[in-house]
Amino acid sequence: MTAPTNWDDLRLFLAVAEQGSLSAAARLLKLGQATLSRRMAEFEASLGEPVFERSTQGVQLTPMGRKLLPSAQAMAVWAAEAQVQHSGSRHASAMQGKVRVAAPPSIAYDFLAPMAADIRKAHPGLQIDVLSSVKLLNLSRGEADIALRTFAPQDPDLLCLDSISAPIKAYASHTYAQSLPAHYEAKDLDWICWAAPYDEVQINQELRALIPNFKAAFTSDDHNVQFAACRAGVGALLMAQVQHRYTQLGQLCALPLDFGPRAVGQLHMVCHKRTAELSPVVAVRAFISAEFAYMRTQQALHGIHLEPRAP
Prior knowledge:
D-Maltodextrin-Binding Protein, domain 2; 3 domains; disordered C terminus
């Protein structure tokens, strides 16, 4: 196989991969579909194997296409960075590009989604792509630019740029809390938890360790559904006691249960070395770090003393 060196070919390949069809990519690129199809066929011939499987529904990446995609995405980011540097300005109006941030569903919902409005006000040329999943994405393969993770990275190519800790508390609707008997314990509550295939996450493990023969009252594989059930009064939900400015925990009340020193949530901002200093990534990192700093200030004001793990 001959290694591709033509950025223009990779740019066209990336457009087709992201748009999902030759026709959509051709419209985006302002090219004729026949021209784009011919260019992709020539590109595949230079590689010696196809990068797309074509069908009436669009295109799907082949194994070669999936292997090539992270490199093409990284080159697109660096091309945008070069354009910013060439313009001689890092002003907000010059900031362009997509920043993909991977995070657990609760963080994506309660933290990143509302923060995106402020990022876009400061940098309207940025596209924020939030990848909400319990699944761990691979930063080395370019599956995301920034990851918010509940544990520090071990890979030497990954940088832990900031960390925050928060106690794990039980939350419930005000109506549900008022229905509880006096002097209740964790075993007396109706618990909302993760369903399969995520039933081994930390929250579920904490409850199984705490309550003999634990059985959840309500489960879902979607955090939004869990939060909605909690808000509706189905039961209690374990979550980190976050103090950031975007939190929706004000819709619920914290129950006065002590889960001990083990019940501490960690959140680490992680980047790969090769992308950590790209201008769009740095811009988004700055917003996340500012909110982490705000949370630490709020914890100090409320007498919460939890040291994050060292990066």
